[in-house]
From TrEMBL:
Keywords: NAD, Oxidoreductase. This is Diacetyl reductase [(S)-acetoin forming]. It catalyses: (S)-acetoin + NAD(+) = diacetyl + NADH + H(+). The keyword Transcription regulation does not apply. It comes from Periweissella ghanensis. Belongs to the short-chain dehydrogenases/reductases (SDR) family. One of its GO terms (molecular function) is diacetyl reductase ((S)-acetoin forming) (NAD+) activity.
């Protein structure tokens, strides 16, 4: 991979799960990383461990549903790290929502975080790129559930389909500024949230935790759930120079759940 030392990457939801893995991978790639999260404590732990490994990182508190907060966080990262080159709009919510359980508050909160956070991240990053006089990379979190509707995920799947559309429009609109916009589409990833779902599935069936995990892995071609690092490797490609001629795409990194 071509050296990216000195470039700055901003990762929302960077304090845990996939976002943590992305933050660590980009730091290893040579980026200075802003670990942005609603939970400043977890973001700080990740940033400090990245620093301990010999890389440059800071923790930034942000509520991605709040437009002004996103702009402020991007400005803070740009000033502290001396630049701004890549944003990864990773933060998101994924509650199970059978249609008869969906209420206004759930709908509003998930759309504000997943879709609103993507809009505000795109806007804030574009402003930063313009101020710095160069292009950049915008990377959005969609999902395999944004490629094929998933049972019981009416709200989440809706947001992830929306993010694919937003990615395509932004890619067209921002190309004249030298900005590329792509998305990544994870499948079922081993995160604390996924572990909770698997445990609940197992408990309801009177089975052990491992059985619960197997139920989700059996329809994956590679027969295993994704590690967060699998997704981070895909984002690494999108953040680096090897993807410079790619824009408007949504890359599936799901172990073979959806085939296009």
């Amino acid at each position: 991979m071509t050296n990216v030392n000195g470039k700055v990457a901003f990762v929302t939801g960077g304090g845990q799960g996939i976002g943590e893995a992305i933050s660590r991978r980009l730091a290893n790639d040579g980026f200075k990383v802003a670990v942005a999260d609603y939970n400043l404590e977890t973001a700080t732990k990740v940033a400090e461990s990245i620093q301990a490994a010999g890389h440059e990182a800071i923790a930034v508190k942000v509520d991605v549903a709040d437009r002004d907060a996103v702009f402020a966080a991007v400005k803070e990262a740009k000033e502290q790290l001396g630049g701004f080159d890549v944003i990864v709009n990773n933060a998101g919510l994924g509650p199970q929502t059978p249609f008869d359980t969906i209420d206004y508050d759930t709908y509003r909160r998930v759309y504000d975080v997943n879709v609103g956070g993507t809009y505000w991240g795109i806007q804030a990053a574009t402003e930063a790129f313009k101020e710095l006089g160069h292009g950049g990379k915008i990377i959005n979190a969609s999902s395999q559930a944004g490629q094929v509707g998933n049972p019981g995920l009416g709200v989440y799947s809706g947001t992830k389909f929306a993010i694919r559309g937003i990615t395509q429009v932004a890619a067209r609109d921002l190309a004249p500024l030298g900005i590329t916009v792509n998305a990544y589409c994870p499948g079922i990833v081993k995160t604390p949230m996924m572990n909770d779902i698997a445990q609940k599935t197992a408990d309801e069936a009177g089975k052990p935790f491992e059985w619960g995990m197997e139920q989700f892995a059996q329809n994956i071609t590679l027969k295993r759930l994704s590690e967060p690092e699998d997704v981070a490797a895909c984002v690494s490609y999108l953040a680096g120079p090897d993807s410079d001629y790619m824009t408007g795409q949504a890359l599936l990194i799901d172990g073979g759940m959806v085939f296009n």
